[in-house]
From TrEMBL:
Source organism per UniProt: Streptomyces gobitricini
InterPro entries found in the cross-reference section: DUF4935
Database matches in Pfam families: PIN_12
Protein name as annotated: DUF4935 domain-containing protein
Superkingdom to which the source organism belongs: Bacteria
Length: 160
């Protein structure tokens, strides 16, 4: 006998592209790829996502790079200023650059406006640490130590 009960309508399957840190790091802020991601998100034809752990890694990496470049630029500016023939303080001619905090906020805004951020749950974080302790993939052994709890937490977030 045929089942004549009415089935609830199913939501359309929306393709999801979940990106890892290494993929997003390579993209400059003005890349056409960012525009494509924004267009996909705005059209609702697909989901572009990163896990919260990837967001944390991206911001930490961007912060280190920016602070390092800013330190080098400050040292170069001070060295150059010492060679000038004026007595005034050089701070009034320092180029207008973002503070490290402002730079990170700009990057976080770009990430959140462009991609969905999948939250890192307690369960995913704990499982990532457990997998590292037991050297279970995607965590791995590295000599006498284990590594990869963040990778495992990212993987568990994607599975959730």
């Amino acid at each position: 006998m045929a089942d004549l009960r009415r089935k609830p309508p199913q939501e359309p399957c929306v393709p999801t592209l979940i990106l890892d840190t290494c993929v997003v790091t390579a993209l400059p802020w003005n890349s056409t790829v960012w525009e494509m991601f924004r267009a996909v998100r705005a059209a609702g034809t697909g989901r572009i996502a990163i896990s919260e752990m990837v967001l944390i890694e991206l911001l930490a990496q961007r912060g280190r790079e920016y602070s390092s470049a800013l330190d080098k630029a400050t040292a170069a500016h001070q060295a150059l200023w010492k060679l000038q023939f004026v007595d005034m303080d050089a701070t009034h001619v320092w180029p207008a650059v973002y503070s490290p905090e402002d730079s990170l906020q700009k990057w976080e805004d770009i990430y959140r406006q462009t991609m969905e951020v999948l939250p890192l749950t307690r369960e995913a974080a704990v499982e990532g640490l457990r997998r590292e302790a037991h050297r279970l993939r995607p965590a791995r052994a590295s000599g006498k130590t284990a590594t990869g709890s963040r990778d495992a937490a990212i993987w568990m977030t994607v599975l959730e």
